């Protein structure tokens, strides 16, 4: 998965499980790595941070990426 998309789908936006598994790159992730990712994703979204905190995470992440690219 492209790095930014991975973090957004993992920590910021509640993307349906079916959409994650339907991504074209999903099949290219080694099974052990997928299992680790999937377990972490399920634990995280079982009790996620507030929408405001997730939005702040995205804001900070975008600023960091912009700074690195510029």
Q: In words, what does this structure look like?
A:
The protein has one domain. The relative contact order is 0.14. The model has no long low-confidence stretch (mean pLDDT 87). It has helices spanning 3-12, 17-22, 31-46, 51-69. Helix content is 73%, strand content 0%. By secondary structure, the protein is an all-alpha fold.
Whole-number total of structural domains: 1
Q: Which runs of at least 5 residues are low in confidence (pLDDT < 50)?
A: none
Distance between the termini: 23 Å
What's the Cα radius of gyration?
A: 13 Å
Tally of alpha and pi helices? 4
Order of helices and strands: HHHH
- Fraction in helix: over 70%
Could you report the average pLDDT, rounded to the nearest whole number?
A: 87
Q: Categorize the overall geometry.
A: globular
Number of strands: 0
- Summarize the biggest pleated sheet: none
* Classification by helices and strands: mainly alpha
- Beta-strand percentage? under 5%
List the helices and strands and how they pair.
Layout: H1 3-12, H2 17-22, H3 31-46, H4 51-69
Descriptors:
70 residues, mainly alpha, 73% helix, globular
In short:
The protein has helices at 3-12, 17-22, 31-46, 51-69.
């Amino acid at each position: 998965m492209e790095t930014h998309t991975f973090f957004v789908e993992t920590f910021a936006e509640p993307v349906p499980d079916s959409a994650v598994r339907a991504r074209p790159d999903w099949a290219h992730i080694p099974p052990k790595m997928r299992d680790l990712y999937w377990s972490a994703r399920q634990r995280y979204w079982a009790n996620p941070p507030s929408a405001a905190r997730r939005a702040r995470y995205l804001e900070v992440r975008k600023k960091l990426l912009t700074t690195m690219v510029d």
